[in-house]
Every structure is written in structure tokens, then in C-alpha cells.
Design a protein that fits this description.
This protein is mainly α. Helix content is 77%, strand content 0%.
Length: 296
């Protein structure tokens, strides 16, 4: 019952933000911009999403010991997880799917720990980039209350890490902790390097959409603001960031480009991810391995 209440609250917030967006922004202009996107740039954005997923797969493989799970198999499973992340409300549904699809080969502990540490290093890289840009370019960032999400998230991440290390001393988490601590420093650094590569590709995917709409913006500006937008969008207050993402684009990019144009960029970025994620849906049907997560 509690999860349905949370889901309902997030749904109400998303719908409210979208309705307020329709009220404040010229939706006809947004619709026209969506049509005017150069299809080659839109497809390039989708390809970059797939490329970032492949590099994320290489990052995930670092933490999996079973040799039967080759990079190609893990890439298929990663795409399936991305598909479920889009299809299911929230941002972790795909991770649960990935755990269930590899646990027969790795065991539950390694499956859970590998997905956790893969996401953990990705979030760490995003927070490092976001907090770094926040400190370096604070004078150029629009002064809105939401920007403080970035330093708060960064320090919450550090405190959360310390808390996880503390609770890992309890017997219940011991096996999980031992698995995490079994990784060498070299593996963690390699995963962080992959994570930085993923974030750069994600920034590039948004930049090509700006270019595809003939909107003049520097890559440097997108690189400064996008990690901050992603961090704010990750807050569990809406369905898959819907509404929050569009308002963040208005907040950070609309001064010189107009509200309708940047809302179009935000929607097209999301649609490019949806298009790329459909590959995961095809892979799910190809593997013909239906999941009954609730039953298991």
C-alpha cells in the first residue's frame, strides 16, 4: 500500500508539472520544433545512448567473475534493463531485471553486488563532474534553489557511503560487504574511467539534438549544466523525471534559446532514449526468457 501511495504522489507531481508547462510555454512552438529536428541528428542521439550503454556494460563486466557471461550477453541484458527502466515507473526497475537475469550464473549475492557497484561508480562519476562544475562555474549558474541539489547530493553521497560501510559490519550484510571489498583499486579506477566516458557521451547526445534543431549553444555550456540537470532529475519526486527534466532545461538553457526550444530539446532527448531502449525490448523477446519477478 505504501509504495502505491508514493507512486501516486510522484504521478500527481509529474502531471502537475506537465500541465503547468502547457500553461506557461507555447506548446504549438514546441510541437513545431519536434517536427523540425534533423532526423539524422535524432538517430545519432539514439546511437550515442546505445554507445553509452555498451560502455556501461564494460563497466558492469569488471565486477562479474562468471566467464559464461560474455560482453555480448551482458550487453543484451543491459539493454533489456534499459528498456524496463523506460517501461516501468522509477529508475531502478531495470536493475532488478538485470539481477534476475544473471543470478543463475553468478548467484544472488554477486548479481546484486555487481549491479549495485556498477551503478555506484556511475553515480560517483556523475556527482564528481556535477560538483566540480558547480564549484568551478558557480558564477555562471542561474541562482535558483534547485541548484543546491548538487552539493547536497554530493555530501549526501559521502555520508551515505560512510553509513553503508558502517551497516556492512552487521552479519546480515557481511557476505555482500566482503564481495564489494574484494575488488582491487585498479578495478574501481577502471570503472570510474568508464563512467566518465559514459557521462561525456550523454552530454554529446544532448548537444547533437541542439545542433539538429539549429540552436546555437556551446558544448562547454551543455557540459556544465547537464550533469546538474541529471542529478536533479534523479530525485524521486516524479515518474522517470517527467516534468522535472523539462523545467530544468528551461531553468538552465532558456535565457538565450527560448523556453519552447529547450523544452523541445528535453522531449527529443527523452524520445531518443525511448527509441534506443526499444532495442532492449527486441532483445527481451529474442532471448524468450519471461520474468516473473513478483513470484520469485
Amino acid at each position: 500500500m505504501k509504495k502505491y501511495i508514493k507512486l501516486s504522489i510522484r504521478l500527481i507531481i509529474s502531471v502537475s508539472l506537465i500541465f503547468y508547462l502547457f500553461y506557461k510555454v507555447d506548446i504549438i512552438h514546441v510541437a513545431n520544433s519536434l517536427i523540425l529536428i534533423n532526423p539524422l541528428f535524432f538517430l545519432l542521439a539514439s546511437f550515442l545512448y546505445l554507445l553509452s550503454s555498451y560502455i556501461s556494460t564494460l563497466r558492469w563486466k569488471i565486477f562479474i567473475s562468471n566467464s559464461e557471461l560474455t560482453t555480448s550477453k551482458l550487453f543484451s541484458i543491459y539493454l533489456i534493463g534499459s528498456f524496463f527502466n523506460i517501461a516501468l515507473p522509477g529508475t531502478v526497475g531495470g536493475d532488478i531485471v538485470k539481477v534476475f537475469m544473471i543470478k543463475e550464473k553468478t548467484g544472488v549475492t554477486e548479481a546484486l553486488a555487481s549491479v549495485f557497484i556498477e551503478r555506484y561508480t556511475g553515480l560517483a562519476a556523475l556527482l564528481i563532474i556535477g560538483f566540480g562544475f558547480f564549484c568551478l562555474f558557480y558564477r555562471e549558474i542561474p541562482k535558483q534553489p534547485l541548484i543546491w541539489t548538487v552539493p547536497l547530493s554530493f555530501f549526501a553521497f559521502i555520508i551515505g557511503t560512510a553509513f553503508l560501510l558502517w551497516i556492512s559490519n552487521f552479519k546480515f550484510f557481511k557476505t555482500f560487504r566482503d564481495y564489494i571489498l574484494s575488488f582491487q583499486r585498479k578495478q574501481i579506477i577502471q570503472a570510474l574511467v568508464y563512467s566518465l566516458g559514459v557521462q561525456i557521451i550523454v552530454i554529446l547526445s544532448v548537444y547533437v539534438i541542439f545542433i539538429g534543431l539549429n540552436l546555437s549553444i556551446s558544448f562547454f555550456k551543455v557540459a556544465i549544466f547537464l550533469p546538474i540537470i541529471i542529478l536533479i532529475t534523479m530525485l524521486p519526486i516524479s515518474i522517470s523525471g517527467t516534468g522535472v527534466r523539462e523545467w530544468c532545461f528551461i531553468l538552465f538553457f532558456s535565457n538565450s534559446l527560448g523556453q519552447a526550444n529547450v523544452v523541445a530539446v528535453s522531449i527529443l532527448w527523452f524520445l531518443s532514449q525511448v527509441l534506443a531502449s526499444l532495442v532492449g525490448g527486441v532483445e527481451y523477446l529474442r532471448l524468450n526468457k519471461p520474468l516473473n519477478i513478483k513470484k520469485e
